[in-house]
Structure formats: C-alpha cells, structure tokens
Amino acid sequence: MVTIRLFEPKDVNFAAELIRQEKWGHTAKDVRRCWNFEPEGCFIAEQDGERVGHVFSVNYSTVGWIGLLIIQQSYRGQGIGTTLMRTAMNYLRNLGVETIRLEAVPEAVTLYQRLGFKSEFDSLRFYRELRPGRTCLQAKDEEIHQIKDDELEILGKFDAECFGANRLKVLQGLYRDFPQHCLVARNDGIMGYIMCRETNSGFWLGPWVCEEEHPEVARDLIVSFLHALKANSGLCVGIPAPNTMGIQLLEKLDFSLMSRSIRMFWGKPAYSGNAKENFGIGGPEKG
How far apart are CA 261 and CA 222, in angstroms? Predict the structure, then answer.
C-alpha cells in the first residue's frame, strides 16, 4: 500500500541519491534548499514502509511550480508518480494557486497530460566546458557588481516583473549559499542580474534575467560572470525557447545545445511573465 507523507530532514540523502541516479546534478545542499523553500509542499511516497519516491513544489502566490518528481526504477508504472503529483497539486490549489507550471522530460509528458497539463513552449539546455584562461567576449564598462544584502528586496520586485511571480525566497536562498556567484547590473535602477550554483556535475547558471529592450546587459552580465568564474568544469544553463536573442548569445559564447524539456502548465493559460527576459531559468524544479 502506498502512503504519502511530508518530506523530512532525514529524507535529504535519500532524495539526493535518487537525483544522482537520474544524473540531474543536484547536491544534498540543493535538496535541502528546495525543501526549505516550501516545507509543507514537499512529499515522500512510501510503500510498505519503504521510501520509493518524492516530489517537490513551491508556491509563488498565484503561481506554483512542481519538480523533482522521481520514483525508484523498480516501482515505476504503479501510479505512484500520479499520486505524488495529485498531492502536490492539491497542496498548491489549496493555497489559492491559479496556475501550476513544470518542466517535463519527454517520457513524462503523457503523465502530466493525464493530470490536465498543457504544453507552453520548449525549454532548452545549453552546456559549455569551463577552462582556466579560456577567452571570451569582453564586457563593456557598466555598473556590474556582486549583489549586496540590501539589494535583494528591490531585485525581487524586478524579477517578479520578468518572471511573472514573486520568487524572492528562491533568490534569497541562492544568494545565501552562493554570494560569490551572484551579479547585478544597475543604472538608475536594476537592469538585470545573474546567479549560479555549484552542482555535482559542475555549475548551473540561473536565474539570469534582463529587460528585453537591453539584451546587451544580459551579454555583459554573463561575460563578467565567465571572467570571474575560475573553474575547470562544466556550465549548464536552461533557457526558454522563445528567447531567441539569449540562444544566439549562448551560441556565440560557445555553448552547445545539450537537451530540451517541455514547459507545461495547469490552470490559467496566460503566461504572466516574459520568456524573452528570462535568459536562464532557476532550475526545472522551481522555474
């Protein structure tokens, strides 16, 4: 018999191991951070007392996000994933969420469609090897600096206009764990910002957000970031397919297309943000 319970601190290593098996790159630190975003919205599935899967959700007021749905290989095909998804969806709907989003790998699309999700657009994954001393485009002389504590509130408001929901708690969590990888571009106000986290397989760049009318700021932010990042590893970034300017920029900087997922939604269909201002998603599990 399958039972669903709330995720607990003792489940962090279990989730990190399932994620490692899927080669998604998240560390135990990532798992704990995602759980801290929404402790009441993360769930564990158990069968006869044994943990067999999990799902995470995060609430951004009227918009919710679901991710990190994983069932142990030997327990798949028994409806456990559907049960976990319904639990997470019910949690978000009870909070007043009107739109739920997720990023689906192709093999999971049918499951989400049965739950009422519809396709929105493709979400692309680009990758680049990082090597010390590797040259890249030069950034222009703009006011780009490491994000400061007192900038987070105004940064959250800027991000909400572009992303379509207030995800300040996510920005605060990433900044707290990786302040050295968080840059902001300012003029009279915020023009854009970029964040990055370290993973088991290298680095994940995002969120990376800039105003659509200032694509040069997106360019200068990532170039400044690449110059500052001293690492011999890989760098991955997810970008909405409608952001063609961002895709062209990544290709110019020697990023290569690695894979793609499908952005899907349940509920209100209107996209309240601007995909062309999102140059790098925070992650498929949280948008």
Answer: 23
Comparing CA positions, the residue from 226, 252, 234, 255 lying closest to residue 135 is: 226
Q: Which fold has domain 2-97?
A: Aminopeptidase (3.40.630)
Averaged pLDDT, groups of 10, the chain, 287 residues long: 96 96 93 97 96 98 95 95 98 96 94 96 95 62 86 96 95 97 93 95 95 93 90 92 97 96 89 88 95
Given CATH 3.40.630.90, say whether it is the number of domain 125-280. Answer: yes
Residue the block writes with tokens 């890249």: 136
Q: Is 151 helix (H, G, I), strand (E, B) or coil?
A: helix
Distance CA 227, CA 164 (A): 30
Cα torsion at 8, 13, 14, 18 (round to 10°)?
130
Domain residue limits, the chain: 2-97, 125-280
- Give the model confidence (pLDDT) of 245-282 as tens digits: 999 999 999 999 999 999 999 998 755 789 999 999 99
Same fold flag, 2-97 and 125-280: yes
Decide: 18 and 10 in contact? Cβ < 8 Å: no
